[in-house]
Design goal:
Layout (H helix, E strand, L loop, with lengths): L5 H14 L8 E4 L3 E5 L1 E7 L3 E6 L2 E16 L4 E14 L1 H6 L4 H5 L2
């Protein structure tokens, strides 16, 4: 019979916790259509002063506006902050964007 030490058991538990899927969660706070805070951000795919495309826990988020500026991007804490004149926010599912022809960016700029 093999007996594992307490530290080995804790190490195994930590690895199992990392493997467990994280709950999908996202918060979006828009203040006066000028300041946007988004949580659950995995990556920013592209950005310019008129469009920001972010990969989030719940799909691709497209933010459109004028004079957009990213003032905070922290991938470790999954937070994104944007300032500017925000006109619209829209989601596109990851699965839907990868299975259709033409690519995601081709559909955005139609």
């Amino acid at each position: 019979m093999v007996t594992l030490s307490k530290s080995v058991l804790e190490w195994i538990r930590m690895i199992e916790e990392k493997r467990a899927p994280r709950p999908r969660a996202q918060n979006i706070i828009l203040e006066n259509r000028e300041k946007l805070s988004v949580s659950g951000v995995l990556d920013v795919e592209s950005f310019n002063d008129e469009c920001v495309v972010a990969d989030t826990e719940l799909g691709i988020l497209v933010i459109k506006g004028m004079d957009l500026r990213i003032n905070k991007l922290d991938i470790d804490s999954s937070e994104l902050g944007i300032e500017g004149d925000i006109i619209s926010l829209g989601y596109s599912d990851r699965e839907g964007t990868r299975n259709r022809g033409g690519g995601f960016l081709a559909r955005i700029f139609r």
